[in-house]
Amino acid sequence: MTADGQGAERTARPRRADARRNQRTLLDAAAAVFVRSGVDAPVRDIAAEAGVGTGTVYRHFPTRADLVVAVYRHQIEACAEAGPALLESCPTPYEALGRWVDLFADFLVTKHGLAAVLNSDDPGFQALHASFLDRLAPVCGRLLAAAEEAGEIGPGLEAYTLMRGVGNLCVGAESDDRYDARRMVRLLVAGLRQPR
């Protein structure tokens, strides 16, 4: 180690990166278990999915509320990061918008029990809805603006309106096997397209 302490910094950084990776692994595992079994799934199922002991889950997330909030925020961030990536990789802004709305719908449909969580009196849960809108509305707005500028959709649709419409189409979809929310959402997005 050098006299200025740089060796200690080099040693500490990989541990922080490992800790972040481990936390992402836990959040991905918890999200997968929540999709299958709801937010009340046993912690041992989440630990098994992540390949760790239950103590590791509790070390990162001491309460179920901590875990649910962290998973929700993690999923919001993944959806937010997908928007710019899709604009870069898709052939047209309209296709990027459609693929992002699919991801957004999947996020809404597969979050068993989160509606109840969002209505909770817990202050950590109350902040989720505001965080959700603050992070995702600008991403949706950017996608809409790009598709509008390309002449692929008509003018004037606000991100909040589209997100609310998608959300309404997804309500209750997780508890009704006969209802295909994703198909309805795709029909909504198809209706945005300007005729050529």
UniProtKB/TrEMBL annotation:
Region listing for Disordered, in residue ranges: 1-21
Pfam families: TetR_C_43 (PF21597), TetR_N (PF00440)
Gene Ontology MF terms in the entry: DNA-binding transcription factor activity; transcription cis-regulatory region binding
Biased composition (Basic and acidic residues): 10-21
Annotated region of DNA binding: 42-61
Domain of life: Bacteria
Domain HTH tetR-type as annotated: residue spans: 20-79
UniProt cross-references to InterPro entries, sorted A to Z: Homeodomain-like_sf, HTH-type_TetR-like_transc_reg, HTH_TetR, Tet_transcr_reg_TetR-rel_C_sf, TetR_SbtR-like_C
Matches recorded under Gene3D superfamilies: Tetracycline Repressor, domain 2
Keywords in alphabetical order: DNA-binding, Transcription, Transcription regulation
Protein name per the record: TetR family transcriptional regulator
Organism: Streptomyces griseoviridis
